[in-house]
Amino acid sequence: MRLLVLFAAALFLTAAHARAQVYAPYDGYEEYDPYGYDDPYSPYPPPPYYEPEPGYREPLQEQREPSTRIGRGTIVIATREHTLIHTTSSGEQFAYPIAVGREGKQWYGSTRVVSKRMHPEWRPTASMRQKNPRLPSVVMPGPANPLGTRAIYLADGLLRIHGTNDPSSIGTNASSGCFRMYREDVEELYDMVQPGTLVIVQR
Predict the structure, then answer these.
(1) What is the DSSP string of the chain?
(2) Per the residue annotation, which of 82, 86, 119, 162 is the catalytic one?
(3) pTM: predicted TM-score of the whole model, two decimal places
(4) N or C: which end of the chain has fewer CB within 10 A?
(5) pLDDT tens track for 79-115
(6) In the chain, pLDDT over 70 holds for what percent of residues?
(7) Tens digit of pLDDT for each residue in 165-187?
(8) Active site annotation includes 17
């Protein structure tokens, strides 16, 4: 009888493990697509509340003296330094470590914040799902979501500053063009920036 119980328990655990899906990190989820997986104008609203999973590394945050070269209310992304610098409207500066695009996927120039979303859903495009058939049509907010808990949309939604479910990628060239931040950092930046904020991406 005891052997039968042990066998049944092992069978249950094996089945539960088989159903578990992990979607992270998927290399290429940030590919540009005019019909993006997480359209900022999507009719699908985020859930009202999500409690982030603990265990992320503490953010590297530094307050600097205001720079006369950077206008107030501006975000500057220094690609080579893997650093995002936000100058507030009052002149305070905050520097955050980020992940940037891989070689050949980097973009430079000026754009603006067009929209923001808390707890964004991840909607892989058809081409992404063709490359990886295990991907679902949508990943709801949670620890497996590659966009993390916040997304700040740039360039009409084709580029984003967002969180990540792969904090080990911060400080590297890891994405397909978007800018990843630690959870605590992107949540702080999200609260400070508004649509219309100037974003300058430097080499």
Answers:
(1) -HHHHHHHHHHHHHHHHHH-------TTTT---TT-TT-TT-S-PPPS---PPS-PPPP--EEEPPPTTS-TTEEEEETTTTEEEEE-TTS-EEEEEEEEEPTT----EEEEEEEEEES--B---HHHHHH-TT--S-B-SSTT-TTTTEEEEEGGGTEEEE--S-GGGTTSEEESS-EEE-HHHHHHHHHH--TT-EEEEE-
(2) 162
(3) 0.68
(4) N
(5) 999 999 999 999 999 999 999 999 888 989 999 999 9
(6) 64
(7) 999 999 999 988 899 999 999 99
(8) no
